[in-house]
Amino acid sequence: MKANNYEEMLKIAIEEAKTGLAEGGIPIGGAIFDLEGNLVGRGHNRRIQEDDPSIHGETDAFRKAGRQKTYRDKILVTTLAPCWYCSGLAKQFNFKKVVVGESVNFDGGVKWLRESGIEVIDMNSQECINMLKDYITKNPEVWNEDIGEE
Q1: DSSP states of 77-141
Q2: Residue 33: which of 65, 63, 69 has the closest Cα?
Q3: Averaged pLDDT, 7-35
Q4: In angstroms, rounded to a whole number, what is the distance separating the alpha carbons of residues 106 and 74?
Q5: What are the beta bridge partners of residue 122?
Q6: Per-residue exposure over 72-103, b if at least 16 CB sit within 10 Å of its own CB, e if not
Q7: Of the four listed, 65, 87, 124, 146, which is most buried by Cβ atoms within 10 Å?
Q8: Whether 20 contacts 43, CB under 8 Å
Q9: What is the 3-state secondary structure (H, E, C) of 1-66?
Q10: Is the pLDDT of residue 2 over 80?
């Protein structure tokens, strides 16, 4: 994959989101790429499937990427604007770029990431918007739990 081909990178995260949905989970996927566009890790939200509140799409991709010497040369791609937890991960490990599928259903820490010097590219993907909107409509309690709302 070519560097900066964000549409193709997002497709990987969308595949992960669809896998999560097919497993009965929340449709949020993530992927990590190097600056040349090589896939380093991919994952999806598995909070429901694993009964583990820490397995968000971004954290699953991060774990599956394994230990890296640095993350400054990595791109975090996610189907949804990262929550504070996942935004903190991006900041803590010095990702310089985060590609977001959408921030319509949830805008998370996008503003804070930008203020922290991280480039955030919002793809405003209608596919991502619709996938999560449909899920939230059908599963509002699970969604509120995922974002820490009561």
Answers
A1: EESS---HHHHHHHHHTT-SEEEES--SS--TTHHHHHHTT-EEEE---HHHHHHHHHHHHH-HH
A2: 65
A3: 98
A4: 24
A5: 100
A6: eebbbbbbbbbbebbbebbbeeebebbbbbbb
A7: 87
A8: no
A9: CCCCCHHHHHHHHHHHHHHHHHCCCCCCEEEEEECCCCEEEEEECCHHHHCCCCCCHHHHHHHHHC
A10: no
Residues 36, 144: Cα–Cα separation, whole Å:
37
Tokens of 61: 């991709």
- For residue 40, give both structure tokens: 């380093």
The one catalytic residue in 15, 58, 145, 149 is: 58
Query: 0.90 exceeded by the pTM?
Result: yes
β-pair type (29-34, 74-78): antiparallel
Taking Cα atoms as reference points, which of 132, 123, 114 lies closest to residue 10? 123
CA–CA distance, 148 with 125 (Å, rounded to integer)? 24
Is the pLDDT at 130 greater than 80? The verdict is yes
Q: Is 58 in the active site?
A: yes
**First CA to last CA across the chain, in angstroms?**
41
